[in-house]
UniProtKB/TrEMBL annotation:
Signal peptide: none annotated. The keyword S-adenosyl-L-methionine does not apply. The keyword DNA-binding does not apply. GO terms for cellular component: membrane. Keywords: ATP-binding, Nucleotide-binding, Phosphate transport, Transport. This is Phosphate ABC transporter ATP-binding protein. GO terms for biological process: phosphate ion transmembrane transport.
Length: 290
């Protein structure tokens, strides 16, 4: 199969619909149902495999993330969503037993090229984690840290401007503008997560990866982050892993369903949630398992 030929993914293989994914030999030739490739790809993954020592965690995944879109990744626990997400900014590099093969490109450039600077890559492809993890520093310093490392501000005034803009874009400025010198860890969970988003935004990323960013938050804080994600997509490209199907339906334009390391189905979020084409997707979104 030519991974660059989107028509290769178009047809629904009849035999795939009843595929027994517990039978790994039956998965070898499995082709994703739906449209994994898009015209306006910001990031593109082709035939990606990820291993933790002998454990094959991601199998032959090809998937694009469209520019200024939110892609949601869903699937049962252990299906590989976080592994795939982390491979998009080489966070897996820090796990010694982890090996990634295939091709992942940002604006067409291979992020696994030997001359790729991973610090720079992670500034371009930022990450927000499940549990808010502000540095044990002031609110101001949490946001200023990245821009300082990357030399993005040439004066105190420029840094102040970056900090304010980032906090505004993370919809936190009004709540913290008078307490910028207070510790970031003293904020509420939802505020801390918005601070972490501000920290990611401060280095002007192009893509933001979010790994269950609301799982530690209450419904009100979650709603604020979801609103924020919707605003952020005007400037950034976003991939989000979530266990909440309601959240995927609310914030994303495309949804990818993973199962046992395979990308089973991907498409327009409305279609995935109203007319899934694979019975595994349907079983998952209707709550039959997962
Ligand atoms: N650091 C690691 N070392 C070894 N195996 C790992 C490691 N991280 C993940 N795995 C394995 O890889 C597989 C995929 O895990 P991953 O965390 O990516 O799944 P997930 O879909 O994000 O799960 P969850 O929804 O529970 O977070 C699982 O079998 C997991 O046990």
């Amino acid at each position: 199969m030519n991974a660059n030929d989107s028509t290769a993914y178009g047809a629904v293989p009849e035999e795939a619909v009843g595929l027994d994914l517990n039978d790994h030999t039956a998965m070898d030739d499995y082709q994703t149902i739906g449209e994994p490739l898009v015209d306006n790809a910001k990031m593109s993954a082709r035939d990606v495999n990820v291993f933790y020592a002998d454990k094959h965690a991601i199998m032959d995944v090809s998937l694009d993330i469209g520019e200024n879109q939110v892609l949601a990744m869903i699937g049962p626990s252990g299906c590989g969503k976080s592994t795939f997400l982390r491979s998009l900014n080489r966070m897996n590099d820090i796990i010694p037993i982890c090996r990634v093969s295939g091709n992942i490109a940002l604006d067409g450039e291979d992020i696994y090229a030997s001359n790729q600077d991973t610090v720079l890559l992670r500034a371009r492809v930022g990450m927000v984690f499940q549990k808010p993890n502000p540095f044990p520093k002031s609110i101001y310093e949490n946001v200023a840290y990245g821009p300082r490392i990357h030399g993005l501000a040439h004066s105190k005034a420029e840094m102040d401007e970056i900090v304010e803009q980032s906090l505004r874009r993370a919809s936190l400025w009004d709540e913290v503008k008078d307490v910028l010198d207070k510790p970031g860890t003293g904020l509420s969970g939802g505020q801390q997560q918005r601070l972490c988003i501000a920290r990611a935004i401060a280095v002007s990323p192009e893509v933001i990866l979010m790994d269950e960013p609301c799982s530690a938050l209450d419904p009100i804080a979650t709603a604020r982050i979801e609103e924020l994600i919707d605003e952020l997509k005007e400037r950034f490209t976003i991939a989000i892993v979530t266990h909440s199907m309601q959240q995927a339906a609310r914030v994303s334009q495309r949804t990818a369903y993973f199962h046992l390391g395979k990308l089973i189905e991907v498409g327009d979020t409305k279609q995935i949630f109203t007319m899934p084409r694979h019975e595994l997707t349907e079983n998952y979104i209707t709550g039959r398992f997962g």
